[in-house]
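Something for you to look into today, if you have time. Just paste the record in under my message, thanks.
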Amino acid sequence: MKFSKTLSFLAVTLGVGIIAIEAQPAAAKTTTHAVPTTLQGTWFGKYHDDLFGNVPVKYRLTKYSFRQGSSKASEKADARTYYVNIKKYRQTKSKSYLFKVANKANSHGYWKLTLLSQNQPVYLKHVKHNGKTALKMYYKSSDTHKAQTSYFYHQ
C-alpha cells in the first residue's frame, strides 16, 4: 500500500503537460541544464491527489538534484532524489532517477523539468502568492488529464 501510494504520488506529481509549450530547437532538447537558482531551495505545501486527497509534500531543489517526498516525519524514508542528466550522474545513476531541465523558461515563465524514464514534464515557476514567495507547479494529472496547479512555500 505504501509503495503503491508512493508510485501514485510520483506519477501524478510528475504529470504531463502545460497549456502552452514553447517550441525549442532539436539541439536544445538534447542538452541538459542546471536547475535555475530561482527554483532552488526547500519548498513545502500540499499536493492534491484524487486518490489520497491533500498530501503534505516537501521538495528540495539544488543545482543538480530534485528531491521529493512527504513532509510527514513518518514517511521521510519514501523520499526520492532525481538527478540532472549530466555526465557525472548519467554514468552512475539509473535512467529512472534522471531528469532534464529546459534551456530557458517558456513564454509563460515556467521551467520544464522532465523525468527521463517516463517522459513526464512538470512545470515550475517562482511567483508571489498570497504575499509570500512561492514555487508554482503546473502539470496535467495522468489520471484525470485535468490541469492542476499547486503552490509550495519556504518555511
Observations:
- Helices lie at 2-13, 26-30, 87-90.
